[in-house]
Write a structure and sequence with these properties.
The complex is a heterodimer.
Chain A (H helix, E strand, L loop, with lengths): L1 H5 L3 H7 L26 H32 L6 H9 L37 E4 L11
Chain B lengths: L1 E4 L5 H7 L9 E5 L1 H27 L13 H9 L9 E6 L8 E6 L6 H14 L4 H4 L4 H16 L4 E5 L4 H15 L5 E4 L4 E3 L3 E5 L6 E4 L2 E4 L3 H7 L1 H13 L4 E3 L4 H5 L4 H7 L9 E2 L8 E5 L9 E4 L2 E5 L9 E5 L4 E2 L4 E9 L2 E10 L9 E7 L8 H4 L2 E3 L2
Parallel strand pairs in B: 2-20, 5-6, 5-10, 10-11
Antiparallel strand pairs in B: 1-2, 1-21, 3-4, 3-18, 7-8, 8-9, 12-16, 13-14, 13-16, 14-15, 17-18, 18-19, 19-20
The chains are: A mainly alpha, B alpha+beta.
Chain lengths: 141, 401
């Protein structure tokens, strides 16, 4: 979920997420420009909220770092550039940059050459015979 | 013999049907209701007896006498026993006679991959329709509908599963395969069309197709409609034949049309036994694996097709012959039968049978008594009273003999 959080702007968070776990009050919209919400009358409240916001972004930063580390450790080393591009573009968004074999494979429903995963719909073939051609004999009668 | 000799049909008609224009023929033969019924009855009776003979050979394990390899026997036995699951899709009896008072005689049973499906089911229908001859009621031709009904019977077991249509050649082979596919689709059974060389057997999953690299399986099939005869696989593609049969052994749900036991029907080595087992069947000609003493006869290879490697032996000598690829096969000798003749052409009738029901009549004619698939297909219409007297048709009517 760190991936999704990292892609949400603070303004989105302000309108979409309850921050009750950070003090029980709703975040107000992030000021676009200094003084937008008034320069003096809410400064105290802003000061009160700052430590909570710092805490939140610290958690966010840790989560992001954790994700980067996790990805560096777990992502398949054989994944080539083309496949990574596909995995990040398949479906029209780049919201799932992590390659998870069998879950969000770029070649949906196919085997990942890096993982050896075989999906039920497109398994690796073990061909023992193939239709041959015939030496001029007709096939009809 | 009466027929309508119409001017050549417009190329646009053939183009619309996708029919190659070589071998086209605009004549339409007029046959009586009695002649049509006699063809139907002959096909019905011949199939019954051919099937009984096949049952005897399968039950007594004498298939080697028909040229069938041992490795095919177990699957032939099982599919024949389970014929409801493995029904016989389509065959065509080739008959001599039946016109101008000549007796109907069985020349051979093309039980596995009969040609002329498109010509009989669609082309002759279109030609008769073009001249407002009402083929819906007056043509012995329900081939397409019978094929559709055949697939309707298969539908409950195969709907939504992998269905494969395949052939190994081009031209008429494609047309025949596609008309079968079309009938299946009318029944609600859709599938994939592949050339035979793209059909694979996977060790684990059986009948399948693979991607271009051959690395991944693309589709797995549980029903195959193939226009590649079993006997040709036995002779020319034994490895594929073995693997296909092995897949059918591993997966009893895998159905191939025509089923392997169609090779028993198809073998011309069965013809000599038919006459001996059913001497009262008037359509079976005397035949043997050795030359018949004292009669005019025809020799033909047991797995021959399309009129190849056939020789006429008359008055102690050879009077007509065709060459081909089948000279190394065992031959049978069959008493000569008389083909109907209009003075220029010899006519051979073909009666289709699907799911054991006779369902379509077509004629081929040629200037030689050995009729091949290169000879022209001639349409027919059943005389329904006033057809010869219609003013619009009278000028095309000719009587031959």
């Amino acid at each position: 979920m760190a991936v999704h959080l990292s892609r949400i702007s603070p303004a989105d968070m302000a309108t979409e997420y309850d921050n009750s776990h950070m003090g029980g009050t709703m975040l107000t919209p992030w000021p676009e420009t200094p003084g937008e919400r008034g320069a003096g009358d809410d400064s105290a409240a802003k000061k009160d909220k700052l430590p909570k916001l710092y805490g939140f972004f610290a958690i966010l930063a840790m989560a992001s770092l954790g994700w980067v580390g996790w990805r560096a450790f777990f992502s398949p080393p054989e994944l080539d550039e083309e496949e990574e591009t596909q995995s990040s573009t398949r479906g029209g968004t780049s919201s799932t940059p992590i390659f998870i074999p069998g879950v969000n494979s770029a070649r949906s429903g196919s085997e990942s050459p890096s993982s050896g995963f075989v999906s039920p719909s497109r398994p690796r073939a073990n061909i023992t015979a193939r239709g041959g051609s015939f030496s001029g004999m007709s096939t009809g009668s | 013999m009466d027929l309508f000799r119409f001017p050549p049909f417009p190329d646009s008609l053939y183009d619309a049907l996708g029919y190659p224009k070589e071998g086209k023929c605009s004549d339409i033969l007029i046959i009586s209701r009695e002649e049509a019924d006699a063809y139907y009855a002959a096909a019905e009776r011949c199939f019954r007896d051919v099937d009984s003979a096949a049952e005897y050979f399968i039950g007594s394990r004498r298939l080697d006498e028909l040229g069938i390899p041992d490795y095919a026997v177990p699957v032939i036995e099982r599919t024949y026993r389970e014929y409801m699951r493995h029904p016989h899709m389509l065959g065509r009896f080739d008959f001599a006679g039946g016109l101008d008072g000549l007796p109907i005689k069985l020349l051979e049973f093309n039980a596995d991959t009969p040609f002329s499906i498109f010509e009989v089911s669609s082309l002759q229908y279109a030609l008769a329709k073009h001249h407002e001859l009402d083929p819906d009621h007056f043509q012995y031709n329900s081939l397409f509908e019978q094929l559709r009904d055949f697939f309707l019977d298969l539908l409950p077991a195969h709907a939504g599963r992998g269905v494969l249509f395949t052939n190994a050649a081009d031209g008429e082979d494609d047309l025949n395969t596609l008309i079968i596919k079309d009938a299946a689709e009318h029944a609600g059974l859709t599938g994939t069309y592949l050339h035979w060389t793209d059909v694979c057997i996977d060790r684990e999953r059986g009948l399948c197709s693979v991607d271009k690299s051959g690395t991944y399986i693309e589709k797995i099939f549980h029903l195959m409609i193939k226009m590649v005869p079993w006997d040709l696989l036995f002779l020319e593609d034994e490895h594929m034949a073995r693997e296909l049969l092995r897949s059918m052994e591993r997966d009893p749900g895998l159905v191939v049309c025509n089923p392997p036991y169609a090779a028993v029907y198809q073998s011309k080595a069965l013809l000599p036994f038919l006459r001996r087992i059913f001497p009262l069947n008037p359509h079976f000609l005397p035949a043997d694996t050795a030359p018949l003493p004292g009669v005019d006869q025809v020799s033909k290879p047991i797995w021959g097709r399309e009129g190849r490697n056939i020789t006429f032996w008359e008055n102690g000598g050879t009077t007509a012959a065709t060459d081909g690829f089948y000279a190394q096969q065992p031959f049978i000798y069959q008493q000569k039968a008389e083909l109907a003749c209009d003075g220029t052409h010899y006519y051979q009738a073909g009666v289709f049978i699907s799911a054991e029901v006779p369902c379509g009549l077509g004629f081929r004619r040629g200037t030689s008594r050995i009729i091949t698939t290169d000879d022209a297909m001639v349409g027919h219409i059943v005389d329904h009273g006033d057809i010869r007297n219609r003013p619009a048709l009278r000028r095309y009517l000719i009587s031959l003999n």
